[in-house]
Amino acid sequence: MQFETLLYDIEDRILTITLNRPDQLNSFNGEMLTDLLKAFDLADADDDVAAIILTGAGRAFCAGADLSSGTETWEGHEDSLASSKRGDGGGEVTRRIYDCLKPVIVAFNGPAVGVGLTMTLSADVRISTPNTKMGFVFAARGIIPEGCSSYFLPRLVGISKALEWCYSARVFRSEEALEAGMLRSIHEADDLMPTARKLAKEFTLGSSSISNAVLRHMMWRMLGASDPIEAHRIDTAGINALGTSEDAKEGITAFLEKREAKFPGKVSKDLPAFFPWWEKEEF
Q: For residue range 228-267, what is the model confidence (pLDDT) as tens digits?
């Protein structure tokens, strides 16, 4: 698959999306926005993709928004990163990752600031190289944190740490991000992608893709639930629907026969009828 600003590679049912503007430190522009949205659309529709890794080419993950257009960067014209027709570009990517049907891992191979950090907050797991620069630098540019970060960041690190990072607009290191809970782990450069691939395989080998798609949204969407009864309703619908599925039959049979399960379910066509429940008025 060819993209203007990305590399798109599938191996062993793991898709690696690589931000590919290394000469510009993978800075985020309108083309990258369009490419990322398309890449995640393709990944969701492709049953040969079971998990996704997002990383960067060269020495940076993403240096933030491409500021080469100067003060017009966030103007409301169609090519800006905040077009009035499509909304904040970073937020579109964050929401698209949030809506994804596959597990998403971010591997920070180098600096990640601004939108290069906010757009990753809806991924399931983030790992990084040591001493990597990170920052929510928006207040230092006279703007605000975007990419839905006011929703995701406090949920990941707590309100106090989120405000500290955003008020100060300071650049911090991956070790601080690990301590705060934004990162899962830190790895030397040579081990970063092998670790990401190992995690992706752990998430998908021996697990039903249908189960992963449903439980991913159960976990994320229950963060905003007002009462445990909301989770109980989804639990009940999920067990009733999936408990009689072909994947459940295969999972139980494989367990009894002491062999690896080979789940037949396809995310593209076999998701349960109640999914996506958050869009259904009657649920």
A: 999 999 999 999 999 999 999 999 999 999 999 999 999 9
From the list 36, 1, 15, 47, the residue with the least C-alpha distance to 213 is 47
| pTM for this prediction | 0.92
Token pair for residue 181?
């809970």
What string of DSSP letters covers 81-144?
TT-TTT--HHHHHHHHHHT-SS-EEEEE-S-EETHHHHTTTTSSEEEE-TT-EEE--GGGGTS-
**Has residue 16 got a pLDDT over 60?**
yes
Q: In Å, how far are 155, 225, 277, 283 from 230, measured between CA atoms? A: 19, 6, 11, 10
Backbone CA torsion sign across 32, 163, 154, 204 = positive
Given a cut of 50, whether residue 84 has pLDDT beyond it is no
End-to-end CA distance of the chain: 38
- Choose which CATH entry (3.90.226.10, 3.30.565.10, 3.40.50.300, 2.10.70.10) describes domain 6-204: 3.90.226.10
Domain 209-279 CATH (choose: 3.30.300.30, 1.10.940.10, 1.10.12.10, 1.25.40.10): 1.10.12.10
